[in-house]
Automatic annotation (TrEMBL):
Residues 334-392 form the PucR C-terminal helix-turn-helix domain. It comes from the Bacteria. It holds the Pfam family PucR-like_N. It comes from Actinomadura logoneensis. Residues 17-178 form the PucR-like N-terminal domain. This is PucR family transcriptional regulator. Residues 399-412 have a biased composition (Basic and acidic residues). Residues 399-418 are annotated as: Disordered. Gene3D superfamilies: PucR C-terminal helix-turn-helix domain. InterPro entries: CdaR-like_regulators, PucR-like_N, PucR_C-HTH_dom, PucR_C-HTH_sf.
Amino acid sequence: MTDTLDQFSGPLDIRVSRRLAGLMREELPAAIDEVDAEIRRTVPEYDRPADSAYGRILRVGVEQLLTAFVDQVAGDGPGLAERDETCRALGHFEAIEGRSLDLLQAAYRTAFHVCYRRTAAVAEREGVPGGQLTGLVEAMIVYMDEAVAASRVGHREALKHADLHHREVRRELLRTLLQQPPASAEAVEELARDAAWWPLPEVATAVAVAPGAPVTRSALDGDVLVDLDDGEPRLLVPGPFTPARAAMLGAALEEADSVLGLTLPLGRVAHSLRWATRLLALAREGVVPSGPLIPCEEHLTTLWLLSDTVLADEMARRHLAPLADLTAGHRRKLTATLTEWVTTRGTAVDIAESLRVHPQTVRYRLRQLDHYLGDSLGDPKTRFALDVTLRAAALMHDDDPSATRAERDPGSRKRGTK
């Protein structure tokens, strides 16, 4: 069986009256808007922002398909070659995205139902003869079948050109490059040879992607290694990270919470992914703003301070143990003052301005801190440890790092937590 359209469809030879053609053209802009909206509602995978790659593809596809149908039945269209090319491109796009044609066929059915409903309403309102309406609906069915057939051709052609073996080998190469401890150079080189001669770069950049986040695979460069089926989806961009690479990732991940790792020598790129994955987790916890392609490079201190949040929490409570018996409100005020003093080394006036209190209040709190913490504030090592732990607490939005577990979670005693 050859991949041609003739075997799938019959001729679209209906012609409507000039009056009905005019009515259809008047309805066309509103019909396009409704079909676009209804497809987004019924096919969630296509419900992306209008200015995204998916949104633009959907809009252009709907406009071209509906306009071509009206032109054809009105008898003044340029033919269906452009329609067929659009449908083949849509099928090709679905294949590259790793999907079957089920979603696209669902979108076609939605478009048919919307157009049928609107056409029937216009026909009833304008008194169009029933015979004309019946012929028009039959033409819609033929037109939809032809669109599906053309999409199937594009989908099949894309799968033919996609070397599935090399795709799997590249996925395995990616996993090997990112594993810890590192794989042997011989194992990496052998996989690279099998992966359609993927040239081993000197440096590479890992990208961590939130599970289930939308990724436009067709926007990715051909040499980007991809594994989106893993529990922790990731990409690897070989070579120096250029503005062109940034634009490419921006198009592919414009709607996906993701983190851009550091560009590192290939033998150390697993660390790039490790840090990117950690920063993605911090973004999802609200420590740093979430969004597409959060750059690791701008959050290195945060990554370092929160590399072990349990340890940071324990350090803070140990260093601030003398404050543990104070009331929570009093302790928070002293901790806020201590944080400003340790991290800024400012004067009482500077600290007061930052905390929006009177300088005399700051002086009083500093005397209390000196009373509770004693000589430890004069020790450079202790001050450094306090600086680090209090900064970590601030990143975790913890304004009372020395609180006991019961104070942090009053329900813990009821649950039997010791």
